[in-house]
Amino acid sequence: MIVKGARVLDGSANAMMKGKGTEDDRPWQSYHTVYTTAKAGMELVDKEKVQRVVYEMSKGSKYFQNEERKEAFIKQKIDNLRIQCANLTQEDLAHYQKVADRRIVELEASRDLSRIWLHVDMDAFYAAVETLSNPTLKGKPMAVGSMSMLSTANYEARKFGVRAAMPGFIARKLCPELIFVPTDFKKYTYYSDLTRKVFGRYDPNFIAGSLDEAYLDITEVCRERNVKSEEIAQELRAGVYEETGLTCSAGVAPNRLLAKVCSDINKPNGQYVLPNDRMAVMTFVSSLPIRKIGGIGKVTEHILKGVFGINTCEQMLEKSSYICAFFSQSTADFFCSVGLGLGQTDSPQVRFRKSISSERTFSATKDEVLLHKKLEELAEMLSADMQKEGLSGRTLTLKLKTASFEVRTRAVTLQKYISSSEDILKHAKKLLQAELPISVRLIGLRVSQFNGDKCSAKSDPTQKTITNFITSGDVNRNCSSFPDVADHDFVSNAETDMSIDSRQTGQLDWRDPFDGNYLSDVDYQSCTVQKSDGVEEVSLSPLVLPYITGFRN
DNA sequence: GCGGATCAC
DNA sequence: TATGGTGATCCGC
Ligand SMILES: Nc1ccn([C@H]2C[C@H](O)[C@@H](COP(=O)(O)OP(=O)(O)OP(=O)(O)O)O2)c(=O)n1
Ligand SMILES: [Mg+2]
């Protein structure tokens, strides 16, 4: 037994810790920035140098210290999980393997290769739009945003390691020539609308994600015109360029999850088609790093790699017994689906907003008069946004980010629905009062539980009804856990966005990443059978498995 | 229902 | 000098 666990232990973190003085000689190597994923256009970047510069610029800051704290927390989580992993008995593993195998068979049976999905994503969108407005920027490294934060960077700047979500002052260190352009959401919204008109030619019901991307079901177009998906993709991209002067990239695959992965492969200004063939899908997915999958971010990647040695989607299946042992069923389903290359193939699903919020960052202060003023402004902004959509809600959440970057939220659920700035402020003040004194750098307000929301069921009065979702019995299955875009009717989309710098902007994309903690505290065990490896259908009864974490602080 | 965390863009 | 804003989901209480 244990052998398996031990092997996992050897494989990951140990390897990283060996080698000489990693910690002492090259401290930046152990600082895991968020800029880890291989973004398009950054293949030739000297990652070691970028890492070092980012580290040098960040070292010692409040932000950095908080990142270190969070990282230590995750590291401990991984250590605990590995111990639990090593403690699994042969019997445990045999059981979980059965559970996993059965789930995999069920998931496989759900595979649908009948649809052709196309994901289109604009290249360096904000930056490209700014270059249209000011052609002298062409060919020069440029970023959209401020000295504090960048929204994105063009491909010339990416060669230096400059990218979205990077503070401008660090970017300038990486690329002294970098040109900064402030964000202008009106422009982005205008061009976004132009691209969507083109998308509509190929799928009137296309699913708009953020301003710069969309999913199109091109099954019908391909069939009606008897053309290959590749030609549709070419034509669509040419159309977008013609209408806007902007380039984009496209990915075609049997489902949205894979189409999204594909659109990134030949970016910028390229496309990639994954045929509707099971073997092609399995081959594609086998070597695919899990981090490429939407919904698997930095932390999930670290945990899966550090605890189970999972790097590729294929390994999700190889380690499926461990996955079923440690994660909730919906999360395990998602991970196994990824291993099988499965994803959403249906089109409907219209989502409704579930919350609305407003938040602002400012220089940290504990001045209560000032904080109250900020709160008042936020209440007014939020109320105004709610009026625009005729919303009122009964849960109010106050968000604070302390001077040390720790985030706190405090919520109240009221008897009555509120929407006026006065009502919001009245309750927000009480929430804030309870936290004083405190030095914060951000305050946010969020309202949820809208009037008209169906608490248990789903249908929404606003109009379109959500069709699927965890409807009737059929618990889980690949329902909500799949990262995947919803949102439809791009109409009414334009506006209310927020930019990085401070200004208002508009954005209205909403995805539904599965995400979350996904660590299952309970799991399934054959309650009676013991072993008797027969076909015996193990009844899934919750069993308290490790439950590793729980150490919150 | 609350609070923390993760993720995407 | 300086590390964003909006929305969603999930887990464990
Ligand atoms: N952390 C982020 C990431 C992106 N964006 C904005 C700016 C981008 O222009 C736009 C689209 O995001 P993408 O991830 O598609 O990035 P780009 O379109 O800029 O580049 P590319 O798609 O070519 O990689 O969303 C943002 O505000 N904050
Ligand atoms: Mg893009």
Automatic annotation (TrEMBL):
Metal-binding keyword on record: yes
Uppermost EC category: transferase
Source taxon at top rank: Eukaryota
Keyword flag Nucleus: yes
Cellular location(s): Nucleus
EC number, as in UniProt: 2.7.7.7
Coiled coil: 64-91
Entry-linked PROSITE patterns: UMUC (PS50173)
GO molecular function, one term: DNA-directed DNA polymerase activity
Domain (UmuC): residue spans on this chain: 117-297
Alphabetical GO biological process terms: DNA repair; DNA replication; error-prone translesion synthesis
HAMAP family named in the record: DNApol_IV
Assigned protein family: Belongs to the DNA polymerase type-Y family.
Protein name: DNA polymerase kappa
Organism name: Glycine soja (Wild soybean)
Taxonomic lineage: Eukaryota, Viridiplantae, Streptophyta, Embryophyta, Tracheophyta
